[in-house]
Amino acid sequence: MEHLKKEGFQRILKEYLKPDIQIKPNSKEKGQVIIHCNGGDILRLWPNHTFLKPHGSNSICKLVYSEGISLYPRWIKGPIKFTLIFEGLPKGCESFDLFEQIPEPGGFRYLGIFRNKTDVYKITF
């Protein structure tokens, strides 16, 4: 009997509480972009200021995780290998830029990265 009540409740929810879902043509894909980085003499990362900028879009993909690099204000001597993980790129994105927008000179810039099927990249600074 309890099982029937649960099924009936789920049917009512589906019928009467249908979510208003709209798919945007440039919506972000599920998944993440992983960038393995190499190089640098002395480095640090400003995590809230590091983004991917998809070409042909006004959106940005935020950094969600970093490994192997010091975070602002600490410095680390290089050369080092580190990994950056970002939110997924919009569907249809074919290329993008990696940038660190900080209030001082020397932020990361890597322009014109062509998208691949895996969204895993290796770059050298």
Summarize the biggest pleated sheet.
7 strands, mixed
Radius of gyration: 21 Å
Number of helices: 1
Please state the structural category: mainly beta
With strands numbered from the N-terminus, the spatial order across the biggest sheet is 8-7-3-4-6-1-9
State the order of secondary-structure elements, H for helix, E for strand: HEEEEEEEEE
What does this structure look like?
By secondary structure, the chain is mainly beta. The protein has one domain. 12% of the residues lie in helices and 39% in strands. The protein is built from 1 helix and 9 strands, in the order αβββββββββ. The strands form 2 sheets. Strands 8-7-3-4-6-1-9 form a 7-stranded mixed beta sheet, with no helix packed on it. The longest helix is centred in the first third of the chain and has 15 residues. The radius of gyration is 21 Å and the shape is globular. 14% of the residues are buried.
Keywords:
125 residues, mainly beta, 7-stranded mixed beta sheet, two-stranded antiparallel sheet, 12% helix, 39% strand
Short description:
Helix content is 12%, strand content 39%. With 125 residues, the chain is mainly β.
SSE order and pairing:
Elements: H1 2-16, E1 32-39, E2 42-43, E3 50-54, E4 61-67, E5 76-77, E6 80-87, E7 95-100, E8 109-114, E9 120-124
Parallel strand pairs: 1-9
Antiparallel strand pairs: 1-6, 2-5, 3-4, 3-7, 4-6, 7-8
